[in-house]
Prior knowledge:
This protein is α/β, with parallel strands linked by helices and 264 residues long. The chain has helices at 3-10, 28-40, 52-60, 62-68, 78-88, 98-108, 122-135, 154-164, 177-185, 200-205, 213-217, 221-228, 230-254; strands at 15-18, 21-24, 46-50, 71-75, 114-119, 140-145, 168-172, 193-196. It has 2 domains: 1-43 and 50-96 and 218-264, no CATH class; 113-208, Rossmann fold, CATH 3.40.50. It has a 4-stranded parallel β-sheet, sandwiched between helices. Helix 3 crosses helix 4 and helix 12 runs antiparallel to helix 13 (230-254). Keywords: Glycosyltransferase, Transferase.
Amino acid sequence: MNMHTARAAFGFDTLKTILGIPVLAIRWDEAIALLTRLIDERRFTKVSFLNAHNANLACTDAVFAEALENFLILPDGVGVDMAAKLLYGAPFPSNLNGTDFIPAFLQASSHPLTVALLGTTRANAEAACARLSTLAVQHNFVVIHDGFFSAAEEPAILERIARLRPDVLLVAMGVPRQELWIERHIDSRHCTLPVAVGALLDFMSGSVPRAPLWLRRLRLEWLFRLWIEPGRLWRRYIVGNPVFLWRVVKQKLSLGPRPVEARR
Length: 264
Protein backbone atom coordinates (compact mmCIF):
# COMPACT_ATOMS: atom_id res chain seq x y z
CA MET A 1 0.00 0.00 0.00
CA ASN A 2 1.25 3.49 -0.87
CA MET A 3 -0.46 6.85 -0.99
CA HIS A 4 -2.26 5.96 -4.21
CA THR A 5 -3.93 2.90 -2.66
CA ALA A 6 -4.42 4.79 0.60
CA ARG A 7 -6.36 7.35 -1.40
CA ALA A 8 -8.77 4.64 -2.54
CA ALA A 9 -9.03 3.22 0.97
CA PHE A 10 -9.56 6.47 2.85
CA GLY A 11 -10.76 9.02 0.32
CA PHE A 12 -9.35 12.38 -0.75
CA ASP A 13 -10.24 14.17 2.47
CA THR A 14 -7.78 12.12 4.50
CA LEU A 15 -4.74 13.28 2.52
CA LYS A 16 -3.09 16.67 2.81
CA THR A 17 -0.34 17.45 0.31
CA ILE A 18 2.58 19.35 1.81
CA LEU A 19 5.13 20.62 -0.74
CA GLY A 20 4.03 17.94 -3.19
CA ILE A 21 4.05 15.07 -0.65
CA PRO A 22 0.69 13.49 0.27
CA VAL A 23 0.45 12.91 4.03
CA LEU A 24 -2.21 10.82 5.73
CA ALA A 25 -4.47 12.95 7.92
CA ILE A 26 -5.99 10.53 10.40
CA ARG A 27 -6.31 10.30 14.17
CA TRP A 28 -3.88 8.44 16.41
CA ASP A 29 -6.28 5.53 17.00
CA GLU A 30 -7.09 5.30 13.30
CA ALA A 31 -3.38 5.09 12.45
CA ILE A 32 -2.87 2.28 14.96
CA ALA A 33 -5.86 0.44 13.48
CA LEU A 34 -4.51 0.96 9.96
CA LEU A 35 -1.06 -0.47 10.69
CA THR A 36 -2.62 -3.34 12.61
CA ARG A 37 -4.86 -4.17 9.66
CA LEU A 38 -1.98 -4.01 7.19
CA ILE A 39 -0.03 -6.53 9.29
CA ASP A 40 -3.06 -8.80 9.75
CA GLU A 41 -3.62 -8.79 5.98
CA ARG A 42 0.12 -9.08 5.28
CA ARG A 43 -0.05 -6.08 2.95
CA PHE A 44 3.51 -4.96 2.34
CA THR A 45 3.65 -1.22 3.07
CA LYS A 46 6.62 1.11 3.43
CA VAL A 47 6.05 3.69 6.15
CA SER A 48 7.77 7.00 6.78
CA PHE A 49 7.05 10.37 8.39
CA LEU A 50 7.04 13.90 7.06
CA ASN A 51 8.44 16.78 9.07
CA ALA A 52 9.86 20.12 7.98
CA HIS A 53 13.36 18.69 7.53
CA ASN A 54 12.24 15.77 5.36
CA ALA A 55 10.07 18.07 3.26
CA ASN A 56 13.00 20.42 2.67
CA LEU A 57 15.17 17.50 1.58
CA ALA A 58 12.50 16.28 -0.82
CA CYS A 59 12.38 19.74 -2.41
CA THR A 60 16.08 19.57 -3.28
CA ASP A 61 16.60 15.81 -3.77
CA ALA A 62 14.51 14.40 -6.61
CA VAL A 63 15.57 10.80 -5.89
CA PHE A 64 14.37 11.09 -2.29
CA ALA A 65 11.11 12.73 -3.39
CA GLU A 66 10.49 9.94 -5.88
CA ALA A 67 11.17 7.29 -3.23
CA LEU A 68 8.61 8.87 -0.89
CA GLU A 69 5.91 8.31 -3.51
CA ASN A 70 6.04 4.62 -2.60
CA PHE A 71 5.65 5.20 1.15
CA LEU A 72 2.67 5.67 3.40
CA ILE A 73 3.54 9.05 4.96
CA LEU A 74 2.43 10.07 8.47
CA PRO A 75 2.66 13.64 9.85
CA ASP A 76 5.48 14.47 12.26
CA GLY A 77 5.76 17.69 14.20
CA VAL A 78 4.56 21.23 14.51
CA GLY A 79 6.00 22.35 11.16
CA VAL A 80 3.73 20.20 9.02
CA ASP A 81 0.80 21.11 11.29
CA MET A 82 1.45 24.79 10.58
CA ALA A 83 1.68 23.98 6.88
CA ALA A 84 -1.60 22.06 6.92
CA LYS A 85 -3.35 24.89 8.74
CA LEU A 86 -2.07 27.43 6.22
CA LEU A 87 -2.88 25.32 3.17
CA TYR A 88 -6.04 23.53 4.30
CA GLY A 89 -7.38 25.58 7.20
CA ALA A 90 -6.78 22.91 9.84
CA PRO A 91 -3.79 21.04 11.30
CA PHE A 92 -3.41 17.28 11.09
CA PRO A 93 -5.77 15.41 13.47
CA SER A 94 -2.80 13.90 15.36
CA ASN A 95 0.95 14.35 15.57
CA LEU A 96 2.07 10.85 14.56
CA ASN A 97 5.78 11.37 15.12
CA GLY A 98 7.58 8.03 15.06
CA THR A 99 9.32 8.50 18.40
CA ASP A 100 5.98 8.42 20.23
CA PHE A 101 3.70 6.69 17.75
CA ILE A 102 5.70 3.55 16.95
CA PRO A 103 6.17 2.47 20.61
CA ALA A 104 2.49 3.23 21.25
CA PHE A 105 1.47 1.19 18.20
CA LEU A 106 3.57 -1.74 19.38
CA GLN A 107 2.11 -1.53 22.89
CA ALA A 108 -1.41 -1.44 21.45
CA SER A 109 -0.88 -4.48 19.21
CA SER A 110 -2.15 -7.43 21.22
CA HIS A 111 -1.30 -10.06 18.59
CA PRO A 112 2.32 -11.21 19.05
CA LEU A 113 4.58 -9.76 16.36
CA THR A 114 8.17 -10.21 15.31
CA VAL A 115 9.87 -6.82 15.20
CA ALA A 116 13.35 -6.45 13.72
CA LEU A 117 15.70 -3.53 14.45
CA LEU A 118 18.26 -2.30 11.92
CA GLY A 119 20.39 0.78 12.35
CA THR A 120 22.12 3.15 14.78
CA THR A 121 25.08 1.71 16.75
CA ARG A 122 25.07 -1.87 17.97
CA ALA A 123 25.01 -0.74 21.59
CA ASN A 124 22.07 1.58 21.01
CA ALA A 125 20.18 -1.02 19.00
CA GLU A 126 20.64 -3.61 21.75
CA ALA A 127 19.56 -1.14 24.45
CA ALA A 128 16.54 -0.09 22.39
CA CYS A 129 15.66 -3.74 21.86
CA ALA A 130 15.73 -4.35 25.61
CA ARG A 131 13.61 -1.28 26.29
CA LEU A 132 11.01 -2.15 23.65
CA SER A 133 10.86 -5.69 25.03
CA THR A 134 9.79 -4.30 28.41
CA LEU A 135 7.26 -1.91 26.88
CA ALA A 136 5.60 -4.49 24.63
CA VAL A 137 6.29 -7.89 26.20
CA GLN A 138 3.95 -9.67 23.77
CA HIS A 139 6.33 -9.17 20.84
CA ASN A 140 9.63 -10.72 19.82
CA PHE A 141 12.28 -8.05 19.18
CA VAL A 142 15.41 -8.95 17.21
CA VAL A 143 18.46 -6.82 16.39
CA ILE A 144 19.53 -7.49 12.81
CA HIS A 145 22.59 -5.25 12.52
CA ASP A 146 23.81 -1.77 13.28
CA GLY A 147 23.52 0.93 10.63
CA PHE A 148 27.21 1.08 9.81
CA PHE A 149 27.57 -1.74 7.32
CA SER A 150 29.38 -1.89 4.01
CA ALA A 151 27.95 -2.83 0.62
CA ALA A 152 29.73 -6.17 0.93
CA GLU A 153 27.81 -6.93 4.15
CA GLU A 154 24.43 -6.00 2.66
CA PRO A 155 23.51 -9.36 1.06
CA ALA A 156 23.96 -11.21 4.35
CA ILE A 157 21.85 -8.61 6.19
CA LEU A 158 19.07 -8.87 3.61
CA GLU A 159 19.20 -12.67 3.76
CA ARG A 160 18.87 -12.59 7.54
CA ILE A 161 15.86 -10.27 7.31
CA ALA A 162 14.26 -12.52 4.67
CA ARG A 163 14.81 -15.63 6.82
CA LEU A 164 13.23 -13.95 9.83
CA ARG A 165 10.56 -12.16 7.77
CA PRO A 166 9.47 -9.88 10.62
CA ASP A 167 6.06 -8.28 10.75
CA VAL A 168 7.75 -4.93 11.37
CA LEU A 169 11.25 -3.81 10.37
CA LEU A 170 12.42 -0.63 12.11
CA VAL A 171 15.13 1.03 10.02
CA ALA A 172 17.07 3.75 11.84
CA MET A 173 19.69 5.18 9.49
CA GLY A 174 18.72 8.84 9.28
CA VAL A 175 17.08 10.75 6.45
CA PRO A 176 17.25 10.17 3.51
CA ARG A 177 19.46 7.07 3.74
CA GLN A 178 16.85 4.96 5.55
CA GLU A 179 14.07 5.66 3.04
CA LEU A 180 16.36 5.14 0.06
CA TRP A 181 17.69 1.89 1.52
CA ILE A 182 14.18 0.57 2.11
CA GLU A 183 13.11 1.63 -1.38
CA ARG A 184 16.06 -0.07 -3.06
CA HIS A 185 16.35 -3.26 -1.02
CA ILE A 186 13.20 -4.19 0.91
CA ASP A 187 10.13 -5.86 -0.55
CA SER A 188 7.40 -8.28 0.54
CA ARG A 189 9.90 -11.15 0.78
CA HIS A 190 11.57 -9.39 3.71
CA CYS A 191 8.79 -8.09 5.97
CA THR A 192 5.30 -6.61 6.03
CA LEU A 193 5.92 -3.12 7.41
CA PRO A 194 9.34 -1.53 6.92
CA VAL A 195 9.30 1.71 8.91
CA ALA A 196 11.86 4.51 8.59
CA VAL A 197 12.20 5.61 12.22
CA GLY A 198 15.11 8.09 12.30
CA ALA A 199 16.41 8.57 15.84
CA LEU A 200 13.82 6.33 17.52
CA LEU A 201 16.32 3.65 18.56
CA ASP A 202 18.71 6.28 19.93
CA PHE A 203 15.89 7.73 22.02
CA MET A 204 14.71 4.29 23.15
CA SER A 205 18.28 3.36 24.16
CA GLY A 206 18.49 6.39 26.44
CA SER A 207 21.67 7.64 24.75
CA VAL A 208 19.81 10.68 23.39
CA PRO A 209 17.50 12.36 25.94
CA ARG A 210 13.93 13.34 25.15
CA ALA A 211 12.61 16.77 25.96
CA PRO A 212 10.59 17.07 29.19
CA LEU A 213 6.92 16.22 28.70
CA TRP A 214 5.79 19.80 29.29
CA LEU A 215 8.06 21.00 26.49
CA ARG A 216 6.76 18.29 24.15
CA ARG A 217 3.20 19.33 24.94
CA LEU A 218 4.12 22.87 23.92
CA ARG A 219 5.37 21.40 20.60
CA LEU A 220 8.89 22.67 21.34
CA GLU A 221 10.86 19.42 21.37
CA TRP A 222 12.84 20.68 18.38
CA LEU A 223 14.17 23.50 20.58
CA PHE A 224 15.36 21.00 23.18
CA ARG A 225 17.07 18.88 20.51
CA LEU A 226 18.78 21.98 19.16
CA TRP A 227 20.06 22.78 22.66
CA ILE A 228 21.35 19.21 23.11
CA GLU A 229 23.00 18.91 19.67
CA PRO A 230 23.58 22.44 18.32
CA GLY A 231 26.51 21.53 16.10
CA ARG A 232 24.55 18.87 14.23
CA LEU A 233 21.08 20.39 14.20
CA TRP A 234 21.47 24.17 13.93
CA ARG A 235 21.19 24.16 10.15
CA ARG A 236 18.15 21.86 10.22
CA TYR A 237 16.19 24.10 12.58
CA ILE A 238 17.59 27.64 12.46
CA VAL A 239 17.88 27.65 8.68
CA GLY A 240 15.56 24.80 7.70
CA ASN A 241 12.41 25.81 9.56
CA PRO A 242 12.15 29.31 7.99
CA VAL A 243 12.96 27.85 4.56
CA PHE A 244 10.21 25.26 4.99
CA LEU A 245 7.63 27.89 5.97
CA TRP A 246 8.72 30.10 3.07
CA ARG A 247 8.18 27.18 0.68
CA VAL A 248 4.74 26.51 2.15
CA VAL A 249 3.76 30.17 1.79
CA LYS A 250 5.05 30.09 -1.77
CA GLN A 251 2.89 27.02 -2.46
CA LYS A 252 -0.11 28.77 -0.94
CA LEU A 253 0.37 31.95 -2.95
CA SER A 254 1.29 30.41 -6.29
CA LEU A 255 -0.68 27.18 -6.51
CA GLY A 256 -2.78 26.78 -3.39
CA PRO A 257 -3.08 23.22 -2.07
CA ARG A 258 -1.79 20.87 -4.72
CA PRO A 259 -4.47 18.22 -5.40
CA VAL A 260 -3.28 14.73 -4.57
CA GLU A 261 -5.14 13.34 -7.58
CA ALA A 262 -2.64 15.19 -9.79
CA ARG A 263 0.15 12.87 -8.62
CA ARG A 264 0.50 9.73 -10.72
